[in-house]
Amino acid sequence: MSRPRIVIVGAGFAGYRTARTLSRLTRHQADITLLNPTDYFLYLPLLPQVAAGILEPRRVSVSLSGTLPHVRLVLGEADGIDLDGRTVHYTGPEGEEGTLPYDRLVLAAGSVNKLLPIPGVAEHAHGFRGLPEALYLRDHVTRQVELAAAADDRAECAARCTFVVVGAGYTGTEVAAHGAMYTDAQVRKHPMRTGMRPRWMLLDVAPRVMPEMDERLSRTAERVLRQRGVDVRMGTSVKEATHDGVVLTDGTSVDTRTLVWCVGVRPDPLVESLGLPMERGRLLVDPHLQVPGRPELFACGDVAAVPDLNQPGQYTSMTAQHAWRHGKVCAHNVVASLGRGQRRAYRHRDLGFVVDLGGAKAAANPLGVAMSGPAAGAVTRGYHLAAMPGNRVRVAADWLLDAVLPRQAVQLGLVRSWSVPLESSSPEVARVPGRPEVPGRPEEAGRPATSTTSDTQRSDTEPEGEQAGGTTNDAAAKNQPDSEPARSRPGGEPAGNQPGGAGAMSRPGSQPAKNQPGGQPAKAQPGGEPAKNQPGSEPAKAQPGGQPAKNQPGGEPAKNQPHGERAQKGPSGSPRASGKPRRAVEAAGPRPARGGSGRPGKAPRASGAGSAGKRPTAPSGPSRSAGPPTDPGPEPPANQPPPGPDIAPGPVKRTDGRAAEGDS
Q1: Which of 8, 17, 21, 20 is nearest to 321 (CA)?
Q2: Buried/exposed code over 104-131 (b: 16+ C-beta within 10 A; e: otherwise)
Q3: Which pairs count as long-range contacts for 657-663, CB under 8 Å and 24+ apart, including other chains?
Q4: Sign of torsion over alpha carbons 277, 281, 283, 284
Q5: Residue 468 and residue 415: Cα distance in Å, rounded?
Q6: Residues 37 and 426: beta-carbon distance below 8 Å
Q7: Confidence of residue 567 (pLDDT cuts 50, 70, 90)
């Protein structure tokens, strides 16, 4: 009998705990596959310390392959689930597609940033849900302080050193607290010419800081924030965001270059496509974390609406504490569904919350005991060390070094603003040129395979290399290597010079060659108009008596020849539209010209070298080009030798067997 196949989607708190517990319970009697966009588990509560320069990024990243030795890791994002066929379709990091069959499926996809219909927020704000966003915020804040310190204009200095955080929950409070300490330390070393100091603002429509937590924790956190100079405004939010600042709901305008969006999260949109009963965007499950009517389907973490047995009629909140416990119970119930052990219902006991406010300040209520000051700080860091599944010694070492050494306030520039758009469906993965979007996400439907953030999202304080290269700031030039998928490559619209499309403008000649299949018959071929170098026609420009051809010696150099205006070329030296993964290009090799049916206007059928299951895309118009199209004329016949450097192809031979003047 074959071993059961268990697929887990997502490696957050719930998915990671499920995989680790299943690996121990099954004892190698099941095939466990973990599908995740990254190869690490992110300990999210310590992410504000990464943005503040206390911890290095790898300290909060726990290797999946290193800590889950008996679990198969598949890198990719799930974009479709066939419940009847019991398969998960996914897209890999390089655009490859695949499917994973399963006997038991655990959905633990987590959550993404929650957007609100506020003008300008999607273009000018950045979230705080993954390592790329934390690294970008650290570089951006460092850069703003350095530029403000060098500015002579007082208004510009004030705008650059004003930082607005929207959302006074757990994450937003810690970001503002750690950020204020970080910028104050920078200014102490390099005072500003205008004598100003950084200003942090914390906004929320709620009546108090951290409204979902204990009121004593809320008062402690607000007191620490105000002592550090943070402008805490409750009952206030953003009405409109622009490139130069924000307009608040109370009518106040604030000049700023930084808007951090910590309003909240929403379940991953993957579960919305299943067509199953939902509760506020979360998949409804029973107390055993099983989807009713689907005995093979389980859900846990932020995507699951788990009934709270301690409070009938309520559902467990979307917190890391619940997700971590969901994973353990879910693993036991998956094993029980395979005939081993008994099912368990999820019950929890609130252990309290801890909020790290930076330095020796914290707010905590372990087991309901309210604490503040250094004692709360020790409890908070002890809790994090105990809860982390790895890297404990490294995290403790970084804390010790931060206590005795100054922080390194440098900007590395590794993450650009367009790499971490707020509307991203995968905040844990930075958007890079050439990486295709996940087509199965509901919010990505109908979008082209290019980045969608507008040009105004990029700040004028970004490095020069971050703004150069085109009219759309969030994608590299489409005709350069490693850029977003051009429309003439897989992932976009088919190139016109490929079978099934119109002539690509990125190759010499904007129209398809008339002597190729799919175009009009060449004028020099039977059935077409007489060629210009035949009797009864005009003299060919390449022959004596006509004007010299532009691609012949003595004329203007052809744009596709050396010494002329060179075409945009890839690393291999051949003109190509960018965006196609290098691996696919190398696998496909040079594409020979294919013969067709000979019918005018009918393109040959493309066999393609892509992976199985690729969705066909509809043919469209010509793709974009880096330069103006050129028309070098008809291609040489197959029996002509290839031209050498600086020598254009010879004239077309006659078809009637007679030698013409100028034929070689």
Answers
A1: 17
A2: bbbbbbbbbbbbeebebbbbbbbbbbbb
A3: 660/533, 660/534, 660/543, 661/543, 661/544, 662/533, 662/540, 662/542, 662/543, 662/544
A4: negative
A5: 15
A6: yes
A7: very low
- For 151, 152, 153, 161, 184, the CA distances from 196, given in Å and listed in that order, are 11, 11, 11, 9, 11
At residue 34, the 3 state secondary structure works out as strand
pLDDT tens digits, one per residue of 230-279: 999 999 999 999 999 999 999 999 999 999 999 988 899 899 989 899 99
What is the SS3 string spanning 424-473?
A: CCCCCCCCCCCCCCCCCCHHHCCCCCCCCCCHHHCCCCCCHHHHCCCCCC
Closest CA to 333 of 350, 321, 345: 345
Lookup: tokens for 16: 């990671």
Round to whole Å and give the CA distance between 340 and 212. 39
Angle of helix 320-337 versus helix 13-26 axis, rounded to 10: 30
Q: Which residues contact 195 (CB under 8 A, 6 or more apart)?
A: none
Exposure string for 181-216, b = 16+ CB within 10 A, e = fewer: bbbeebbeeeebebebebbbbbbbebebbbeebbee
Q: Which residues pair with 290 in a beta bridge?
A: 298
403 contact partners, CB below 8 Å, separation of at least 6: none
Sign of CA dihedral 532, 535, 541, 546: negative
Q: What is the rounded CA–CA span in Å between residue 235 and residue 232?
A: 10
pLDDT at 544 over 90: no
Lowest mean pLDDT of 11-15, 16-20, 58-62, 516-520, name the range. Answer: 516-520
**What token pair was written down for 567?**
């075409």
Which residues are CB-contacts of 49 (< 8 A; sequence separation ≥ 6)? Answer: 55, 60, 178, 356
**Selection from 158-162, 573-577, 581-585 with the highest mean pLDDT:** 158-162
Q: What is the chain's length?
A: 664
pLDDT in tens, 408-426: 888 888 888 888 888 777 7
pLDDT in tens, 359-394: 889 999 888 888 888 999 999 999 999 999 999 999
Predicted confidence at residue 435, as pLDDT, reads: 54
Residue 359: per-residue pLDDT: 87
Residue 67 phi/psi, 5-degree rounding, is -110, -10
Residue pLDDT, tens place only, 169-184: 999 999 999 999 999 9
The predicted structure's pLDDT at residue 520: 44
Which residues have CB under 8 Å from 432's CB, separation 6+? 419
Contact between residue 135 and residue 252 where contact means Cβ atoms under 8 Å apart: no
Residues contacting 505, CB < 8 A, separation 6+: 496, 622, 623, 624, 625, 629
What pLDDT, on the 0 to 100 scale, is given for residue 142? 94
Strands 31-36 and 72-75, how do they pair? parallel
What is the value of pTM for the model shown?
0.66
Q: Which two tokens stand for residue 392?
A: 């404990």
DSSP string, 507-530: SSSSS--TTSTTSPPPTTSTTSPP
d(CA 430, CA 93): 11
pLDDT over 70 at 539, yes or no: no
